[in-house]
Amino acid sequence: MSRRSSASFESPAQQGQRNDWQTLQTLLPYLWTYKWRVSMALLFLVGAKMANVGVPLVLKELIDHLSIQPTQPQALMVLPIGLLVAYGLLRLSMTLFTELREFIFARVTQRAVRTIALKVFRHLHALSLRFHLNRQTGGMSRDIERGTRGISSLISFTLFSILPTLIEITLVLSYLLLHYDIWFSIITLSALVLYVSFTVLVTEWRTHFRRTMNELDSKASTKAIDSLINYETVKYFSNEDYEARRYDEGLQRYETAAVRSQSSLSLLNTGQSLIVASAVTLILWRATQGVIDGTMTLGDLVLVNTFMIQLYVPLNFLGVIYREIKQSLADMERMFTLLDEHREIADAPNALVLHPQGAEVRFSKVQFSYEEKRQILFDVDFTIAAGTTTAVVGHSGSGKSTLSRLLYRFYDVTSGSILIDGLDLRDLTQASVRQAIGIVPQDTVLFNDTIEYNIAYGKPGASPAQVEAVARAAYIHDFIVSLPDGYATMVGERGLKLSGGEKQRVAIARTLLKNPAILIFDEATSALDSKAEQAIQAQLKDIARERTTLVIAHRLSTIIDAAQILVLDHGRIVERGTHAALLAQQGAYAQMWARQQARPDVLSASSIDDAHVDDRVAV
Hints:
Structural class: alpha/beta
Strand content: 5-15%
Order of helices and strands: HHHHHHHHHHEEEHEEHEHHHHEHEEEHHH
CATH topology of the largest domain: ABC transporter transmembrane region fold
Number of strands: 10
Largest sheet: 6 strands, mixed
CATH class of the largest domain: Mainly Alpha
């Protein structure tokens, strides 16, 4: 099996830009899934347009009949009634066929939007941690929103506007060519070619204005969302005006691009109106001259004029439609580009499902780099025996949190291997590996929902009794029931309504509910006070007793009972052993222990969360 390095990641810029045809090729299979509905909708569309073209023909016959002075007035009263009935039926048919087309095709459009949006959402969750560390959530969410809206617009405009207009133009040109002077067809066709050419050329020129607007809109949205998410930080430094200026700078650039876009739109509209007005005037002149010369009747004059009026509305709208289609394609392009993002970590074709049998974890000569020029881990080699606890300590940036990310397979090792029960992680499905692991992180982030929802997230569908049981085990139940809304209390954006200790206890309860075979505690009690820490430490020991546990620790007092303690320094294991054995060595661990014992109220320099350092390296 091939082993892919994390260095194989490609940025969107390296993958190249999509073109309109590639965007359409991506969309079409989702529509063709409902090919029978598409076919029925097209039949109703043709029927509506044939009825629309038939209306002027009936009107011509009615006017020609009325313009003749019959010798028997009674005949005048019979024939127009039939024509009037035909006229009404054709008008009704137009509406009936149009509504049937809309009814049949509605599910196609909505299902395509739903399917694609869900696929993008799933794909984003399948992308690597590296992508999400670099992402801009605000801009990406706007890209998805505009992309799904663009699908509806493209389908609506193409099938319900462009195609019907082309069918109507074909029918009208055919009738004019067969029944009238060839100049009628020449004038109409020439105007169409000139109109379409002018519209396409000017719209292509205008496209970059729209793309610029999209980019600036996404950037402005990103700045706004980032600022609001970090509301407290903004307040800490009294930077409200600074954030407002940054946001306004983006809005100003968007305003400039929008004005340019509107100015070019006015130019396009003026040119289109000039072409259409000239063509209609020429057609009416030829028809009037035909009546004067006796080669055409008044009915013919009305027929030709009505044809031109019927063509004028969709033809004039054709320019708007083309612009909307180009806009929709530009919007969809950004969303489909997300689907083109390379999945850095993917399951092997024949990946196995992990069924933990003791859950022994083995790091075998692991080397790893977030980027080629800076290696993080060097020949890391250790085993966590099934059902035992191994602790990892070290200074900030030594690579402790990187171990947990590799175990979760957020990244693949550069060389070496990580095994669970003797099976290489790269030979297992990611879903089964992550299902077997539970983590209590130092920086706990909660969903903006209730406390009950956040605890139950460890096992979707868990009963209230199960949620309460793990809350009691995490020593947070009494706090929850003391709140006015109890378990229904909203925690706020990222859990900001709870203290750091309360959030960590929710995270512990959530992990307990997951009931994993392997546990990772990334300084799980760092935000707790001494009393709460002592209570939960005893509970964590009970929890970890029958599980394989990796503890990333800063407070050495929390790991003295670990079966094995590893000391990391610049990505290398420099010491290993039990607490007592390491103290006896009088090495790096003993020095860290002495510093923390000398100042128990202040953590040593190693207490700085190296997870954030690793994040910066990953970026």
